[in-house]
Here is the input.
Amino acid sequence: MSKIKFTIISLFPEALKPYLDSSMLYKAQKEGIIEVEYVNLRDFGLGAHKSVDDTPYGGGDGMLLRCEPAYAAIESVKSGSPQAKVILPTPVGEIWDQNLARRFAGVEDNSFSESEVAAKESPCFSWRRRLKGEDIIPLDAPATNGEQPEQGAPVMTGRDAVSCKKSKNRSVHYIIFCPHYEGYDERIMNLVDYPISLGQYVLTGGELPALIIVDSITRLLPGVLGGETSAQIESFSDGSNLEYPQYTKPAEFRGMAVPEVLLSGHHAKIAEWREEQSRLRSQR
Ligand code: ADE
Here is the structure.
């Protein structure tokens, strides 16, 4: 069985646990479909006060996450798992959507094509190329923390990391590094494989994005949702179409009736109605 391991590096692991230990995500962990590990960034802080932030060079408001704790935390996870891929929630990352969730879950259809994989190592290739072309980081900086995979260990490509569709027994490991405070030292980006944005707004930290990323990947994994097809019929599962409206009992509630066709038992007509509703919604 394939398994996805998430290691979440955060200053507030206690804020993450209650959500991830509830409902479907709890079940997914209990059944070994995913594993969640928490690393407290504070443990890698500097000095007696375990400091992790400092003021920005050049002036400006707020505090920035320093490089040293971030590198130490990520490297400590990677020392036991050199092939793990690092996700950084950031407002300047690639916008997270259902297609990306499917790619990271390694489910069919929208996984990276052979040509995409050949052309680049990760979905944020444009980011990394841009970054390397700019002046913040030494241009020859390694794409990872520089550690080589163990001798003889299979080298994991971007495709391996984000698409395990061809292998039933592959384990994929994502490290989600959650920044906090006003921002982070840009050099941290050098350790990042996938900078991910949840949308065009700014949050106080990466914890909520981390929860959303883990949730949206996990629910796509086989065995997590009840119905076999639930993840296929829902909104955006084909990358664009919205799900048709659904109803359950009672057939009438406060004068609002369930559409006749759904009570008819006529499967072909129901399918036709759903398709039409889905099309109309998407158009709107
Ligand atoms: N951190 C702060 N704002 C964010 C956003 N919109 N997406 C991802 N990470 C963030």
Observations:
- The first strand starts at residue 3 and ends at 10.
